[in-house]
């Protein structure tokens, strides 16, 4: 009998590697003061690269959460059921401090280490949503010192406790955020949820929230209208004493990606909440949370690109076509090198932002100013580039990349979310320009950082001068918002690569992204570049 099913010329699964072995990641960790964390980062990276952990991610995405509004007897329960793999992912993330743990760690670089671990633990993006929000809720919650004193130790504890219970009696807490409503979306001031003060100092909330991600969280920051305007409230799932709060889950969203994470519509039917921050200043209060989750959007986009490049390069090193391995063919080399440049530009900029965040938290006002503007422009640009880069990496696998059995389809579906979350493109771009108008010292901080790379590459100097000229006029500023913010993001990336990346990577970036005739599509690097060291960085740390 003739066999037709001998498997030849297929890449083996990319398992058994350390996802933290990426050179740009390790260099960023060392550079931004978190080298002391590399042993734990490596431990997490080896787990993330294992067959077991990758199976958890696939299963959690393949079997999405289920909403149970009532039990079998008809009692209202409002519970979301997850597969055990999801809880393993959460347990690992919390156990390694990807949630609120850095706020309890006084070591310089603690928030950089957390960023590296968040990027390393990229086996599933969905469970990263509650992890990210738990990290971000801590600084916002501090606007109510009495409440923060009781809850912060539970939000920073490295013990995952999924049991629904009185939040003050649990071993650890997971937090969420509930802002948007169907009539407003990003315009949260259009929210119609009301909050009525009670004699015990709490407020009673009534309203409908269009997006509440991770509804099984223990605590949510939410916005509601009071007599003095939009205010911020902390709303627990269970009240002190054990009674369930009056939160009703209406449905779970059917999403393009991020399926392992439940996103819901909820109603507050007389729910109890505690005021956080000054009444009428709710948007300002919750912005503390948004700034942190925006950083995680950059980290998540960088992680998705890095994983996609690793998969594409791994495939190209094992797959042959037309008598040669794909990785030895010039057209593929151009694509892979360009993907690596895109990934390193995002990762290097991200670690600079993580370092700025760490130092801003410790009171450095200059770093806080840089974080304010550079994070806004980087969030806009990197999250726009990620779907393009992952799509190109998927194409490197040909038809295999489009098949669900291969991880790139799952990663590709995830990428657009990070551009939408915490402000879609226009919101992010306009927020950056708003910062320039209201806080002009942020522009000074941005150019002070950019000037540190002047004189290294003439193409960069030209781009920096063009940007400065673009910002001399504010006519039609909203019409030009995306163009200006994209230029700022590219200058910021270029400044970091010229100062910190290998010469070949920085040269390729300047020859493409900063050149006036850049082709735009990935794989359009000009001739004359040294691609070999760039391609070598796609393989470091992977056992093949």
Automatic annotation (TrEMBL):
<dbReference type="InterPro" id="IPR052904">
    <property type="entry name" value="Acyl-CoA_dehydrogenase-like"/>
</dbReference>
<dbReference type="InterPro" id="IPR006091">
    <property type="entry name" value="Acyl-CoA_Oxase/DH_mid-dom"/>
</dbReference>
<protein>
    <submittedName>
        <fullName>Acyl-CoA dehydrogenase family protein</fullName>
    </submittedName>
</protein>
<dbReference type="InterPro" id="IPR036250">
    <property type="entry name" value="AcylCo_DH-like_C"/>
</dbReference>
<dbReference type="InterPro" id="IPR041504">
    <property type="entry name" value="AidB_N"/>
</dbReference>
<feature type="region of interest" description="Disordered">
    <location>
        <begin position="1"/>
        <end position="20"/>
    </location>
</feature>
<feature type="region of interest" description="Disordered">
    <location>
        <begin position="181"/>
        <end position="201"/>
    </location>
</feature>
<dbReference type="InterPro" id="IPR009075">
    <property type="entry name" value="AcylCo_DH/oxidase_C"/>
</dbReference>
<keyword id="KW-0285">Flavoprotein</keyword>
<feature type="domain" description="Adaptive response protein AidB N-terminal">
    <location>
        <begin position="9"/>
        <end position="162"/>
    </location>
</feature>
<comment type="similarity">
    <text>Belongs to the acyl-CoA dehydrogenase family.</text>
</comment>
<feature type="domain" description="Acyl-CoA dehydrogenase/oxidase C-terminal">
    <location>
        <begin position="280"/>
        <end position="435"/>
    </location>
</feature>
<feature type="compositionally biased region" description="Polar residues">
    <location>
        <begin position="189"/>
        <end position="201"/>
    </location>
</feature>
<dbReference type="Pfam" id="PF00441">
    <property type="entry name" value="Acyl-CoA_dh_1"/>
</dbReference>
<feature type="domain" description="Acyl-CoA oxidase/dehydrogenase middle">
    <location>
        <begin position="177"/>
        <end position="269"/>
    </location>
</feature>
<dbReference type="InterPro" id="IPR006089">
    <property type="entry name" value="Acyl-CoA_DH_CS"/>
</dbReference>
<dbReference type="InterPro" id="IPR009100">
    <property type="entry name" value="AcylCoA_DH/oxidase_NM_dom_sf"/>
</dbReference>
<keyword id="KW-0560">Oxidoreductase</keyword>
<dbReference type="Pfam" id="PF02770">
    <property type="entry name" value="Acyl-CoA_dh_M"/>
</dbReference>
<dbReference type="Pfam" id="PF18158">
    <property type="entry name" value="AidB_N"/>
</dbReference>
<keyword id="KW-0274">FAD</keyword>
């Amino acid at each position: 009998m003739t066999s037709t099913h001998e498997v030849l010329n297929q890449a083996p699964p990319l398992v058994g590697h350390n996802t933290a072995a990426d050179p740009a990641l390790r260099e960023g960790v060392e550079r931004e003061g978190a080298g002391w964390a590399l042993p734990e980062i490596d431990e997490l990276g080896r787990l993330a690269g294992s067959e077991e952990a990758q199976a958890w991610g696939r299963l959690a995405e393949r079997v999405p959460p289920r909403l149970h509004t009532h039990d079998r007897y008809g009692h209202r329960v409002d519970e979301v059921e997850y597969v055990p793999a999801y809880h393993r992912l959460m347990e690992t993330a919390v156990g390694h401090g990807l949630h609120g743990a850095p706020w309890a760690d006084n070591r310089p670089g603690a928030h950089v280490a957390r960023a590296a671990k968040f990027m390393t633990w990229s086996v599933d993006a969905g469970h990263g949503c509650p992890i990210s929000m738990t990290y971000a809720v801590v600084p916002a919650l501090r606007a109510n010192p009495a409440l923060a004193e009781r809850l912060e130790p539970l939000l920073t504890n490295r013990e995952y406790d999924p049991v629904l219970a009185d939040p003050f009696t649990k071993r650890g807490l997971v937090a969420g955020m509930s802002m948007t409503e169907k009539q407003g979306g990003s315009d949260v001031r259009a929210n119609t949820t009301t909050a009525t003060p009670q004699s015990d100092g709490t407020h009673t909330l009534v309203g409908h929230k269009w997006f509440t991600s991770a509804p099984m969280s223990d605590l949510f920051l939410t916005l509601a209208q009071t007599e003095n305007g939009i205010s911020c409230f902390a709303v627990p799932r269970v009240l002190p004493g054990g009674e369930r709060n009056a939160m009703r889950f209406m449905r779970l969203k059917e999403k393009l990606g991020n399926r392992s994470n439940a996103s819901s519509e909820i109603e507050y039917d007389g729910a109890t909440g505690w005021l956080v921050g000054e009444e009428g200043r709710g948007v300002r209060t919750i912005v503390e949370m948004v700034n942190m989750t925006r950083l995680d959007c950059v980290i998540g986009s960088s992680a998705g690109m890095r994983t996609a490049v690793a998969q594409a390069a791994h495939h190209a090193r094992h797959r042959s076509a037309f008598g040669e391995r794909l990785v030895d063919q010039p057209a593929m080399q151009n694509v892979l090198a360009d993907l690596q440049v895109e990934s390193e530009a995002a990762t290097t900029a991200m670690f600079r932002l993580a370092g700025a965040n760490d130092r801003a938290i410790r009171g450095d006002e200059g770093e806080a100013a840089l974080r304010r503007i550079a994070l806004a422009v980087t969030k806009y640009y990197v999250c726009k580039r990620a779907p393009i880069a992952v799509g190109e990496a998927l194409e490197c696998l040909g038809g295999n990349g489009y098949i669900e059995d291969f991880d790139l389809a799952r990663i590709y579906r995830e990428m657009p979310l990070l551009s939408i979350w915490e402000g879609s493109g226009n919101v992010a771009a306009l927020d950056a320009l708003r910062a320039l108008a209201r806080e002009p010292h942020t522009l000074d901080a941005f150019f002070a950082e950019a000037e540190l790379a002047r004189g290294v590459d003439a193409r960069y100097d030209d781009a920096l001068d063009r940007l400065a000229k673009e910002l001399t006029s504010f006519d039609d500023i909203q019409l030009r918002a995306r163009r200006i913010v994209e230029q700022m993001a590219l200058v910021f990336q270029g400044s970091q690569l010229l100062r910190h990346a290998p010469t070949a990577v920085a040269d390729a970036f300047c020859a493409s992204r900063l050149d006036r005739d850049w082709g735009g599509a990935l794989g359009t690097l000009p001739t004359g570049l040294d691609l070999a060291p760039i391609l070598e960085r796609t393989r470091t740390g992977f056992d093949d």
